[in-house]
C-alpha cells in the first residue's frame, strides 16, 4: 500500500500499485499456449484416423465391440504367418471355409520351405512322445504338429516339448462313426491354415516312425503320389457295406475301402475339407456297421483324383492275429528280430518303380513299448 497526496491537502487517496506484468501480456501468453495445444491434438487425431480408420456401428453393437489398440498393417506377412494360437474360436463351418483358401498363382512371392504336417488323432496323452521328440529334434522348420484329442483332455507339457500348445479345438470322435472323419477333416483344416504345410500325415498315439526324419521327408517330398490305401473288396466287409441310396454320387463299382491312416498333399487336403458332394451321402447312409472312416476318403478321392493316389498306405499294421483290431505290441515284443521281420520282404512301387522301402510308420504300440523303443531306435530306426 502506498499513499498519494492529492491537490487538496485534506484528502489522502490510497491506491494499490501493480508490481506484476501487465494483464494484456498474460492473456496473450495463455491464448498462444491453448492454440499450440489444440493444433497438436488435431494433428495427432488426423493421423490416428488415417491409421486406424473410422468404424461406424449401431448403438446396440457398440457395447459388444472391442477396438484394438493397434491393427497390423496390410502386408504379405499376415497372409503367410502361421497362427500363433491353435485354440481359435471358429466352428467347423467357419474353419473349413477359411482353410479352403487356395492361391491361384502357384509361384509364391516369398521363400517358402515346404513342411510336413504331422496330425495326431488321439483320445488323450501321447505315451510315445519321448520317441517322437527324439525323431523331430534338429529339424525345426520342416514340420508342424497338430493334436486332436478328447475335448476334456488338458495336456500337461512343458514349453520345451514339440507338442506344447499343439492341441486344436476338438470334439468327440467315435470309432466307425462320421465323427471320426470329422476329426480328421478338422485336423486337415487346421493344418491348412499354415501355408507352408505341403504334406499331411494322419497318425495315432500308438504310431511310431520307422526311419529318421531325413529319410521320411525325402520319401514324402519326392513322391509323385499321395499315400491313401484304396482297394475294391468284393466281400462282406467291402462291397457288402455299400448302401444303394448313395447313388448316383457313388456307385457300387466306385465303392472303395482303405486304411484310415493316410498321407495326402495340399491339393487333396483342400478337396477333402471342401467336399459337399460325397460327405452327405456317407453321413446318411454309411451308418454303424459300415465303418465310414474306412470308406469315405478312399472312395471320394479315388473318384475325383485316381491318378494322384499310390493306392497304398505308408503305415504298417499287423492284421495277422485276426479280429476287428490289429495286433498291439508291448515291451516284450520290441526286439531286433521284431524289426527285422518287419523290414524284410517289403516290396512296393514308389514313383512307378519297384522299391523295398514301403512303410514309414507303424502301429499299434502300447505305452510299455516306449523304453525298449528308445533303447533300439539309434540302431534300428536311425535316430
UniProtKB/TrEMBL annotation:
Among InterPro entries, the record links this protein to:
BC10-like, Glyco_trans_14
Q: Does the keyword Cell cycle apply?
A: no
- UniProt keyword terms in alphabetical order: Glycoprotein, Glycosyltransferase, Membrane, Transferase, Transmembrane, Transmembrane helix
Q: Can you cite an annotated GO cellular component? A: membrane
Q: Where in the cell is it found?
A: Membrane
Q: What GO molecular function terms would the record report? A: glycosyltransferase activity
Annotated TM spans: 27-46
Per the record, membrane topology reads:
Single-pass type II membrane protein
The protein's matches in Pfam families, at most eight in alphabetical order, are given as: Branch
Which PANTHER family does this entry report, sorted A to Z?
CORE-2/I-BRANCHING BETA-1,6-N-ACETYLGLUCOSAMINYLTRANSFERASE FAMILY PROTEIN-RELATED, CORE-2_I-BRANCHING ENZYME
Q: What is this protein called?
A: Core-2/I-branching beta-1,6-N-acetylglucosaminyltransferase family protein
What species was this sequence derived from?
Populus tomentosa
